């Protein structure tokens, strides 16, 4: 063990460098500015005129189903608002927020019609005149508006390892969300994806807290900018706070068991970075953690979120989750008891979303003294503050003509670029890729001709599985390949569905007549509970398709279209090349064709560890003991592909790793540099990754941790020096007393296979 003398740092300050690195261009949450004080005065004045009915109404969020013609989950088509329901909601119950879409995406014109009717009643007929705060899940573009620009999903965005790409996605998504008259976006997901079974794994930014923090902060900056009253910006929502992304069983909304030390070190930093980036709202984890549903846990919602992280904004529940404290978690005796638990724990707004009971019961709880009025006032002040910050009192919506770039070619090109950057080449034996455009090609597999598969869930509908709502003109992989090389050179045989054989013998026969077989495998669209699986291995039907084609001797290019890493150890050896596409969005088909035929040089890197076996789900930052195998050798960590992996059509060489000193101190950070050379014959981009290993620590150290990364472009033959600054705080971990510490000792910096040691000694 190292010296018993430790530098103990309080969480907020010990993470200062981490947050500086993760929010280097983002705006910190303002406090006590003239604008803030002016808003505070407006809030105080407005609240003085509000009744208890007004206040509990502000804390209520109902789904659009509750103000529409038809029944919840079964609205009349075409969609229309129900005037009587709308007046009951806004005038009788004084509801302050509405969310979601009624079944499927609406046109931007219909969104304006909806929002304008809602706001006209709220502001002209409600006694308080308070506008409604409308929220939507616009997680990869405005996925509930027809014709919007749909970007790659978050896991694909993470594979770009490029915060500027995340920033651009955030900017365009915010612009098109406001163009839809909606000011609040329930994004980004900032849970660290540590369990690949989880059906929302693809909504994360990967398995590493540094990468998630860096990319997440950039997304928030894109969404919010410097002023969320800007008509091209929205309020972002960091979600789901906290621990949702590592369920014990890998299934959605099931229990998580996360020790306090691991929670602080791996799951808190991305949310701390979001607070540092100025995020205005937070959504609460739907599930339970360590036996306590997060929606009723004041240690998480008050002590951690408010006191430790310093978050000042609005905390909203997830869908129906307060009621679930009673119906699912069994920690409340009835709905009313559940409301008491959640509001007293720190929830500001209940995403009810499908009943009128919440404000009535909450009012009773206040009148009975079960929920203090101070708690109500605290939440209402946060809600009203956000509405003023968004400028809703002056501009509840903006004219549609203010947004000429909605769904434009310019925005589509930005999505296309993001998709290109995300594509990750994992294997390329004998330079199978790129494929000659003169070659005769077989395209087969269940994801080859599906735009739904490329987009994933939250695309026009909740599950993203209704093709009739897809954007016209967007290309599947098959269509993009046909456009690229000519349909006459392309044979398409479906082969299988996701889990059933269709015509595998015909696919094999076509392979014999082809130069290359492009086999598109993976998953169809899903999200949340419907995406739960019992087996991580790729379905047998798809494996049989690959094996049948392998017997023909035709080279196989596997194109993986999947939201989580489905294991394929039994068929990977049969493939000459493997291209990971994740869920690359509306422009994914075009991007994939660009890479397959060499018009774009791939540069994506895995944002997670791709497991070889379903029972070997170690992350890259595993412990040394995890490397011991059954023969006692240190070969136990053997994933299919490691975190950070990704090939190129050119080659890169790392050399001349230098540290400006052999010791680091509080006042003297290390300057670390390396020379990167493009030794190939074409230009390419490389992600330079800095890892640091702690050789001995009072808590068993991981084998390495990501401490920095930079993406750079080099022409053929060009060299660049890439530099990193490593501060003492970067070496901190959560120690024996569950506080952040930096211990004296020996460390090792690693870049591109090169290693250099350095040390830290107490001063």
Q: Would you count the extended β strands for me?
A: 29
| Number of H- or I-type helical stretches | 22
Total tally of structural domains: 3
What is the mean predicted local confidence, pLDDT?
95
Alpha-carbon distance between the termini?
19 Å
CATH topology of the largest domain: TIM Barrel
CATH class of the largest domain: Alpha Beta
Class of secondary structure makeup: alpha/beta
Using the CA coordinates, give the radius of gyration: 26 Å
Proper CATH architecture of the largest domain: Alpha-Beta Barrel
Largest sheet: 6 strands, mixed
Helix content: 25-40%
Strand line-up of the largest beta sheet: 14-19-18-17-15-16
Q: Beta-strand level of the residues, as a percent range?
A: 15-25%
The coarse silhouette is globular
Outline the fold blueprint.
Blueprint: E1 7-9, H1 11-14, H2 16-22, H3 34-47, H4 52-58, E2 60-63, E3 70-71, E4 74-75, H5 83-92, E5 97-99, H6 108-124, E6 133-136, H7 154-159, H8 163-179, E7 184-185, H9 209-224, E8 237-241, H10 260-267, H11 269-276, E9 281-284, E10 288-289, E11 292-293, H12 298-308, E12 314-316, H13 321-327, H14 335-345, E13 350-351, H15 357-367, H16 373-389, H17 409-422, E14 424-428, E15 441-444, H18 451-455, H19 477-485, E16 490-493, H20 504-512, E17 516-522, H21 540-550, E18 556-561, E19 577-580, H22 588-596, E20 652-659, E21 663-664, E22 670-678, E23 684-694, E24 705-714, E25 719-726, E26 733-734, E27 740-742, E28 745-751, E29 754-760
Parallel strand pairs: 2-5, 2-13, 5-6, 6-7, 8-9, 9-12, 15-16, 15-17, 17-18, 18-19, 21-29
Antiparallel strand pairs: 1-27, 3-4, 10-11, 14-19, 20-22, 22-25, 23-24, 23-28, 26-27, 28-29
